[in-house]
Amino acid sequence: NLDWDLRTDLPGASSTDRSFRIDYVNNCFLKDGARFRYISGSIHYFRVPPAYWKDRLLKMYMSGLNAVQIYVPWNYHEPQPGVYNFSGDRDLEKFLNLVAELDLLVILRPGPYICAEWEMGGLPSWLLTKPDIALRTTDSDYLQAVDRWLGVLLPKIKPHLYHNGGNIISVQVENEYGSYYACDYNYMRHLLGVFRASLGEEVVLFTTDGTSASELKCGTLQGLYATVDFGPEENVTEAFMLQRLYEPKGPLVNSEYYTGWLDYWGEAHSTKSAKKVANSLQKILEMGANVNMYMFQGGTNFGYWSGADYKDGYKPITTSYDYDAPLSEAGDPTDKLYIIRSVISKFQELPAGPMPPPTPKFAYGYVSVPQVSESWNGIAVDTSCGFCSAFQAHGFMLYRTLLPQEIVESALLSASGNGVHDLAYVLLNGEYQGTLERDRVNGINISGQLGDTLDLVVESMGRINFGANDSDFKGLIHNITLGTSILSDWIIYPLDIDTAVAHAWPPTAQSSSGHRGPAFYTGTFTTPGISEDSYLKLPGWTKGQVWINGFNLGRFWPVRGPQQTLYVPGSFLSGSAINTLVVLELQEAPDNPKVLFVSRPLLNVTYNYTHKDRK
Ligand SMILES: CCCC/N=C1\SC[C@@H]2[C@H](O)[C@H](O)[C@@H](O)CN12
């Protein structure tokens, strides 16, 4: 039976010492010696522009939350081995201090793996330079990298622990490890040792797993408090009974109560009924349980940061991480937030004062973006550096070879072993031929002359963050065949487009060629005295990437959906200088290339995708 104790007559803080502990007698947390139950929400600082961190956190506080839960993505902070970035939009301690300013506590989840629909679940892709590395195990190379990373991160965290004067009340070790094939207890023991050695004996360390015996069997460990995650579809009592199998005493905790869900390109937008979310939340709170709502503020996968799942094929995550969360992608309070807030008000006093309003949105209208060039040479790539050893974690690579024979009739260009990871845009002498796509399009017919230049622009759509047991390498990972022969003598070029775009690229030379295949389009616009949020719609475009003033807004794919607009934070715009737009279209742009700024998002329009490659 679930013997949760609702006594409220526990002693108050016995001294001035700050402490946050588990009370195994009264089945609760104790903060400074007094019973404490957290009502928390997840926010990812890495998915919200820093200019809006305080705005979102204030709305979370005004919603009645007393804590926030955050991940720390390892790959966001260690882009190259031994190179660390904790500044600007990666200033973790600035974010933690903002949370403290708002009198909110923190549940920290530093991984090292975090899942989160984030590129490679937060693990840095440079780990894969050891091709046979066994991620999330006691693999010595993996543990060496983990120890070096935690040796940098955890000392930064320690002063922010609650008992040290900060606001971090608990720290999660790994993430749903019970869902992973390896079930390597020595790995979890190693992590427990590292966390304890660095953070001390007092901090509450915990694990989170789904509510199945198999998940809890491999995800839990003696010395780590076992918590569970489940959404409104599950029976609350039954879910917590599974937690009780591993934690017969102590607080009930749902570390991820799903308020919404993630979106995949090409599939319907996910939503969860506010009423169902609120009803189940009320049951959780009535049981005296602690809860973290995942997500409370979703945000955006800017740049190339979105991850992917693997379920009957590769399923990339969309740029928007709206998650149908109580705070929208743009941080606007939704009806779901107010319904949740009224449930919370039954259990704890809400802060006085009004909920901050939605941030103003502005429809800047159409912006013309004429094509600037259709060839890769001299654009964003130094084609003199084939076979460069330069490590490139994200985005695009150019694979170039020459046709080894004349093809009078057409011949099938094919990716054996489903080896295009993840899309390859095929050009012959610079003319677009079509697209190969992982798990969808394994071959297209081409014809050409001996010695013609065959280019494959290969795009990574994000490394798998959940559901696959082997590493998700990107690029051409198996042979490409033409007819019956294997193509060889490839030269590989990294396409560092972001560096080029950030440095006042592109060239102004207009191009008159047709709008098919990978090409860049650019335009400028002014918004005199205004730099309010907006949404970018690309009617008539197919698939690509957008930069505004050098900021990489993320991927667009309107022919797939469900996302039809990209969130444009006002903080990326200038109300005094000229704003520059760069659009990389990978397949086909509209004849009169222009884009449209609108004041409302459109995240739920999916087209039934049947591959009709536009020859
Ligand atoms: C049925 C799939 C379970 C995979 N777990 C998921 S999908 C959405 C969330 C986030 O990824 C979160 O980072 C995971 O811990 C739990 N979860």
From TrEMBL:
The record's annotation in Gene3D superfamilies points to: Galactose-binding domain-like, Glycosidases
Q: Is Metal-binding a UniProt keyword of this protein?
A: no
Q: What is this protein called?
A: Galactosidase beta 1 like
Name the catalytic site residues: E176 (proton donor), E256 (nucleophile)
- Annotated SUPFAM superfamilies: (Trans)glycosidases, Galactose-binding domain-like
What keywords were assigned to this record? Answer: Glycoprotein, Glycosidase, Hydrolase, Signal
Molecular function GO terms recorded: beta-galactosidase activity
* Glycoside hydrolase 35 catalytic domain ranges (all copies): 29-346
Q: Which family does it belong to?
A: Belongs to the glycosyl hydrolase 35 family.
Where is the Beta-galactosidase 1-like first all-beta domain positioned along the sequence? Answer: 391-496
Organism this protein belongs to = Podarcis muralis (Wall lizard)
Gene that this sequence comes from:
GLB1L
One Pfam family from the record: Glyco_hydro_35
Q: Which InterPro entries match?
A: B-gal_1-like (IPR026283), BetaGal1-like_ABD1 (IPR048912), BetaGal_gal-bd (IPR048913), Galactose-bd-like_sf (IPR008979), GH (IPR017853), Gly_Hdrlase_35_cat (IPR031330), Glycoside_Hdrlase_35 (IPR001944)
Domain Beta-galactosidase galactose-binding: start-end pairs: 518-574
Query: GO biological process: what's one of them?
Result: carbohydrate metabolic process
